[in-house]
Amino acid sequence: MNWNLAEFRLLGIDVKVHWSFVLVLAFGAFLYGSGPAGWLVGSLYGVLSMLLLFASVTLHEYGHALMARRFGVGTRSILLLPIGGVANLERIPEKPSQEIAVVTAGPVINVIITIVLIPVALLLNSGNLAQVLSLNAVGANIQSPSLLNLVVFVLSTNLLLALFNLLPAFPLDGGRLLRALLAYIMSYTQATRTAVLIGRLLAVLMAIYGIFSGAISLLLIAFFVYVGGSAELEAVSSRAVLRQYKAGRALTPGATTLYTSERVERVVDLLMRSYQTDFPVRDLSGHFVGVLTRPRLINALRESGPETRVVDVMQPASDIPVCSPETDLATVWERMGQSASRVIAVADHGQVLGIITTDDISEVFQVMSAAMAGTEHRPQPPAETSNDSPETRRYV
Ligand SMILES: [Zn+2]
Known about the structure:
About 55% of the residues lie in helices and about 15% in strands. By secondary structure, it is of the alpha/beta class. It has 2 domains: about 5-245, no CATH class; about 245-370, Roll (CBS-domain). The strands form 3 sheets. A 5-stranded mixed β-sheet has the order 1-2-3-4-12, with helices on one face. Strands 5-6-7-8 form a 4-stranded mixed β-sheet. A 3-stranded mixed β-sheet has the order 9-10-11. Helix 1 (about 20-35) runs antiparallel to helix 2 and helix 7 packs antiparallel against helix 8 (about 190-215). The chain is elongated, with a radius of gyration of 26 Å. The relative contact order is 0.09. Zinc ion binds near residues 60 and 64. Zinc ion binds next to helix 2.
């Protein structure tokens, strides 16, 4: 189902506007339309103000995305929600210096917008700085629509956006900044854990304040901070566990290989007699040509029966990511997520040694975290891969 109100592509990045964004525009129209400017002018002006506010949010996300691009990290999309924007990066740069650059680029954009608009406001206001600073930006903008009030509204909301995002409430920008700084003096996992704890504390305070002040958006943000922080802590812990293992060690010795000429009925037999669920396929000269995965096998049995040839239903080698036996399992997991494949081929000098599946990784993960149980926080096994990432990497 498509939940997007609008989608567009700018500077090579897809921007998706969630349908609930309509509520923001309706809220703007209602708030301003019931002001002294009258229904029509007021509600149009309200919509314009909200659009400018969210244009600022979008530019903030572009700050993150374009800085990440400098470090070779792509952005899958920028999503605009009523509570703000989310830049969905391909991965989070783990080098603290890079994360600091990516994280600060968002608020810096808002500060730049503020700085650029101050002289504009002064021009419109015959240089009366005291008046610009004393204007109650939101209130004045509702009370009397004018270019000056609109400019002051945009510049002050941008300043607020920068300050709010810099709160050390992980995964808000300030929390990420804190994590990156902590990562200089402790392990990445420990730094994340500390930042998440502080974030949770702030989320609780935000929620309490939200309840007493009636600011529903603050409640939503507090919820996002609490849940988002926990999810990311789990992902970081899982990655730390998997990083200790090399792909070569996750290969199953003596795994059965199929040949292109075989029929899927033989595989049914193999499935009954062993734990193997995914089978590498080789041609008669022994070259690796693909993998018959369990989902494809089941699909083949259902659609075309046991006589189907393996070669006709396998996942071809060209669709399968490759790693070396020395690649760590965290990287392996990441590559599988990126290519939405449940298998990866392990190759040494062009020679495919075998395959690793998401099941193999979950198994390694469970054994390793069981060995750590009791002494450490026990992370959850990574979820089955789909098109989505195995972890959150979202910048707000
Ligand atoms: Zn941000």
